[in-house]
Amino acid sequence: MDVQKIIDSLKNAGRSRIVVFGDYALDKYLYIDPARDEPSAETGMSAYQVHRKHLSAGVGGTITNNLRALGAQVLCIGIVGDDGEGFELLRELDRVGADTSYMVHEDTMCTCTYTKPMRKGEDGVYRELNRLDFRNFTEPPMSAQQKMMDNLNAALETADAVIVTDQFYQRNLSAVTDWLRGQLSELAARRRDKVFYADSRSFADEYRNMMVKCNNLELFSKFSGGAGDPDNLEEIIEKGKRTYLRNGNVFFVTRGSEGIVVFDGGATVVPAFRVEGEIDVVGAGDATNAGIVLGLTLGLTPAEAALLGCCVSSITIQQIGATGTASPEEVAARLATRL
Predict the structure, then answer these.
(1) Hey, which end of the chain has fewer CB within 10 Å, N or C?
(2) CA distances, 221 to each of 147, 189, 253 (Å)
(3) How does pLDDT run across 307-325, given as a tens digit for each residue?
(4) What is the pLDDT of residue 281?
(5) 280 in Cβ contact with 319 (< 8 Å)
């Protein structure tokens, strides 16, 4: 594999324009010190006092953050509600320099939000309590779904690639619905001049005419009913080849610390970058997505793009307690260890 080619390609990252389409959420961390607890006058129960909060764009926002850190231009297409969380999500996306003009505003829906109370322990370390999620439990209005497709068609006039982020498990209760999966598959067939790439936790088998990525556990769960050993490379290759032949497009299967298997005619095993010390794997898949698709827009082969994705995620997982990003300089330096 030509590692120097990958390093050199990063110099052109600023030319890439990538649409991140689908599910977005706001990650809201609330920091609580027990020393500040007060009894509630109404209930007598302890009222936790939040003394600090940290906000970041999650799901599609995590991919956006990684692409922007690498220097790519990003156009965001998702759904936000008419609420404070929607304001905060858009502000976080704007803060990193993403284009939010294609986001769909829908006042009948709430902005998906992961509220994470972080309570300080006796050792001074903050630990997450039960998460409080804001979610929608009805299908998005057809008008909002159609608006997403209209905005995607408009964005494609200047974009090089589309990353579809389909990250919720429940069918039709997030931004990406059955109807949108069908529309996206048809659009990908018509627009062969663009890179289409889908990452889906529950519906990877329903995309057509585009590159698809899932992890080894999702591969065995969705494509083989859970049978077999998801850590067995031979079984991964056997099941991945069948999936590749069914879809007829490049198929990526991530394997955590073991790297990625790329199905593109044959099967290419791309090893991960070994890291030492404590790691935090939250957002690792999204960092991988950012690296892969950026690489594809820069003219890398799928296997070369997968190596770039492995490199980006190996840097982000070393950023403890945060959904990390990687700079071009950090990526180039780590890639150079493979020369």
Answers:
(1) C
(2) 32, 27, 13
(3) 999 999 998 878 766 667 8
(4) 64
(5) yes
Assigned token pair, 326: 């990687």
Give the C-alpha separation, 61 to 250, whole Å.
24
The total of other beta-carbon atoms located within 10 Å of residue 3's CB is 16
Residue position matching structure tokens 């083989």: 224
- Per-residue DSSP letters for 212-275? EEEEHHHHHHHHSTT-S-TT-HHHHHHHHHHHHHHHTS-EEEE-GGG-EEEEESEEEEEPPPP-
Mind listing the pLDDT tens digit for each residue in 130-158? Answer: 999 999 999 999 999 999 999 999 999 99
Is the separation of the CB atoms in 20 and 165 below 8 Å?
A: yes
According to DSSP, residue 99 is labeled B
**223/117: higher pLDDT:** 117
Query: What are residue 329's phi and psi, to 5 degrees?
Result: -65, -40
Q: Alpha carbon of 259 to those of 61, 194, 242, 273, 293: distances in Å?
A: 23, 26, 20, 8, 16
Distance CA 167, CA 189 (A): 23
Strand segments, DSSP code E, in the chain are 17-22, 24-32, 38-39, 46-47, 50-59, 73-77, 79-80, 104-105, 113-120, 126-128, 132-134, 161-166, 195-200, 211-215, 251-254, 260-264, 266-270
Residue the block writes with tokens 């059955």 = 178
Contact 304, 270 (CB under 8 A): no
- The pLDDT tens digits of the residues spanning 201-251 come to 889 989 999 999 999 999 988 776 767 889 999 999 999 998 898 888 999
Q: What is the mean pLDDT of residues 67-84?
A: 97
Confidence bin at 100 (pLDDT 50/70/90): very high
**DSSP class of 34:** G
